[in-house]
Amino acid sequence: MNRLARSFTDIDFMRMLVEDPVSFSNNSFTHAETFIYKYTRSKLYAVQDEEHKSFVLRRHGSQAQLMAVHLQGPNISKAVKLNLDLYRSPHTSPKRISPVAMNIVESNAVENNLYLCCVKAGGSPALQLEKVKEPMKEIRTGDQERFLFFKTSSGSTSSFESAAHPGWFLSTSKLNDKPVRMVNQTGERDITDLYLVEI
Description:
- This protein is mainly beta.
- The chain has one helix at about 10-20; strands at about 35-50, 55-60, 65-70, 80-90, 95-105, 115-120, 125-130, 140, 150-155, 155-160, 170-175, 180, 180-185, 190, 195-199.
- β4 and β5 form a beta hairpin.
- About 25% of the residues are buried.
- The model is unreliable at about 20-30 (pLDDT under 50).
């Protein structure tokens, strides 16, 4: 047996740790995975909230705003329809939840290319209308996610949650002739459950 050989002790192990420090590097980037939602089909709907208000498009010069208004008689023709573009989700989701993009269809319009989108404005998510040149055959998270909403069906109504800003829902005021907007609570002060009638 070799006299120079000795057993390895805890002290020897500690000396190794102190003598051979391990260096760490801190990477300051993060990577979010991009998901692609593929277009499957479109459906056209008339929309009303529980107070029987319809969606109406109001134009102010080059700007447009979606309003929720009680319509009667000949004014009923002012109601816009929503064309829901349905998309296939890249991951499994419950059957009652469908990824959709929504564009406004006016009966007298030459082109119907105004899409609803949810963007950050003034510190919180807001509903905007944005012109899109051609139909979106796919929506990528990140750059186009503002157009994507998750339609959740519950009985005879549906709600629309922003994909870009989870927890924010398309809503109407309980008052007449107010803008359609995004809210972060469901069914409290605003109406988030909408009736869709397929046309």
